[in-house]
Specification:
By secondary structure, this protein is of the alpha+beta class. It is built from nine helices and nine strands. The strands form two sheets. Strands 1, 2, 3, 4, 5, 6 and 7 form a seven-stranded antiparallel sheet that branches. Strand 3 and strand 4 form a beta hairpin. The longest helix has 23 residues.
Length: 333
């Protein structure tokens, strides 16, 4: 693997030379980075048409989803000056519908558009930087920044100034399948801030500390190891057993966050996925196994998506350590 991706500097100075993708378009290749229970929403709709939740005690607004997206996009444009930055791809779920007081007695099918109110409880977005890219096992990867805002995590019975919850990440999108590849040092799982300025500072620190070289090396190393069909069957069987283990036993085993429906997808795609299925002899390398898990993760709800994405890479690396003899794995024991 060769790459000229550069570490981010301590200050938002112009980035040095990076590999460039001449075929990168002006819009995201696909917004289907997550599918379960979500709809694609344009930024202008979120900004202009969606109401903003407020704190009950003082009627002050929370940080809006549009402010979150704009803040992140401004930082990406600043830190990655000179790079192509695509417009955000946004997915929302759990709509909260309402109506104006004037329409309180109208049947729902008679409501006019101006009488309806709407916001989505959960929102996730990604911003691609296609001119910062690399290739692993023939799969093109582009640098991607994004986040999650879920109002259900906030205490709306508070006053302005209370902590508001966000999730932010930087990683790579596999352009073959739009799977997101995220590593722990590129993820703020429980960012709590009370102002846009604090949000800006926290996102900046994340983008500055992320080591894309290390992330790429870790993923590239997965291509060097593979498991047999028998090992895959045992691994998947143990994955299904894990949720039902006694509590004391589970404490001794690295956590697996994937449920039965996702594991069913992994099993199906082991045989049928066009890009990541097994070889003719049944073997599958760990990069492809990892992508089977990140592909299955698309059926996850927004509030669990990034945690499972992190877990997929951790899980693949644990299997790799067992194959190398550096550690043991209950899933392959």
């Amino acid at each position: 693997m060769e790459t000229t991706l550069m570490r981010l500097n301590a200050q938002p100075e112009p980035r040095l030379t990076v590999t460039r993708n001449p075929e990168a378009g002006a819009q995201s290749a696909s917004s289907a980075f997550i599918e379960a229970n979500t709809v694609s929403i344009p930024f202008t709709e979120i900004q202009q048409d969606h109401i903003i939740p407020v704190y009950v005690k003082d009627n002050e607004p929370l940080i809006s989803q549009s402010d979150f997206i704009q803040t992140t996009q401004e930082l990406v444009n600043t830190i990655f000056r000179g790079e192509q930055v695509l417009s955000p791809a946004i997915r929302c779920s759990h709509p909260i519908k309402g109506r104006t007081p004037e329409a309180k007695d109208k049947p729902a099918n008679q409501l006019q558009d101006w009488e309806k109110t709407l916001y989505y409880e959960r929102m996730m977005f990604v911003i691609e930087i296609p001119t910062v890219h690399d290739t692993i096992d023939g799969n093109p990867l582009t640098l991607t920044v994004g986040g999650v805002k879920a109002y259900n995590l906030d205490n709306l019975y508070n006053k302005k100034g209370a902590a508001e919850h966000f999730k932010v990440f930087i990683g790579f999108k596999n352009m073959v399948c739009t799977n997101l590849c995220v590593r722990t040092d590129g993820y703020l799982a429980d960012l709590r801030v009370s102002s846009v300025d604090q949000l800006y500072s926290a996102i900046y620190q994340l983008l500055s500390s992320y080591d894309q070289h290390l992330h790429l090396r870790q993923m590239q190393s997965l291509t060097e190891h593979s498991i047999s069909e028998q090992q895959f069957a045992q691994l998947l069987g143990r994955c299904r057993m894990y949720p039902h283990l006694p509590t004391d036993d589970k404490k001794q085993i690295p956590a697996l966050l994937y449920g039965d429906s996702q594991l069913t997808s992994v099993c199906r795609d082991y045989y049928k996925d066009v890009n990541f299925c097994r070889q003719e002899d049944g073997r599958i390398n760990l990069w492809k196994l990892y992508n089977l898990f990140t592909g299955a993760n698309k059926s996850t709800y927004i509030d669990q998506f990034l945690d499972r994405s992190i877990n997929a890479l951790d899980f693949a690396s644990q299997v790799q350590g067992a194959l190398q003899g550096n550690s043991t794995s209950w899933y392959l024991n």
